[in-house]
Design a protein that fits this description.
alpha+beta, 5-stranded antiparallel beta sheet, 5 strands, 28% helix, elongated
């Protein structure tokens, strides 16, 4: 079993020491699905949600969340994120797919930032549409790929898509 790096030899929580790690270009892509009634999704794209532009607000919230990930995830290193992009696409009559790409040149990866971004985008969509529909579901939050660092490139396998 691999050693859990966020625990000291005595079992206490600790921030991982990355001071000796190589500085590399790193990128992470994450995604989430947001499922709702087709009428709710139509209202989003028709600009009829009373709280305003749902997609634009979710995009801004996601970028802010990526930049502040270390404030809300214990033991996560603060990173000077070079780029965060958020895309939101309608994949069927009742589902949105949110994707976040985060990049950094640093000693640790940006997986948590990308995952936080899609999660907060989904929560923002829920918040802006909850007066229309309470049953909106945020699902399948996952890392899609990551590059850089000692472990190199990783991509979700095609059988888990």
């Amino acid at each position: 079993m691999p050693k859990l790096t966020h625990f000291s030899e005595t079992g206490e929580a600790q921030m991982v020491d990355i001071s000796e790690k190589e500085v590399t270009h790193r990128e992470a892509i994450a995604e989430a699905l947001v499922r709702m009634q087709p009428t709710t999704l139509s209202m989003i794209f028709d600009g009829k949600v009373p709280k305003g532009d749902v997609i634009a607000t979710a995009r801004i919230a996601a970028i802010q969340a990526a930049k502040r990930t270390s404030d809300i995830i214990p033991l996560c290193h603060p990173l000077p994120i070079a780029m965060t992009s958020i895309s939101v696409e309608k994949i069927d009559a009742a589902t949105l797919r949110i994707e976040s790409t985060c990049r950094v040149t640093g000693r640790t990866g940006v997986e948590m930032e990308a995952l936080t971004a899609v999660s907060i985008a989904g929560l923002t969509i829920y918040d802006m549409c909850k007066s229309i529909e309470k049953g909106i579901r945020i699902e399948a939050v996952r890392l899609v790929s990551k590059t850089g660092g000692k472990s190199g490139t990783w991509k979700v396998s095609s059988d888990s898509k």
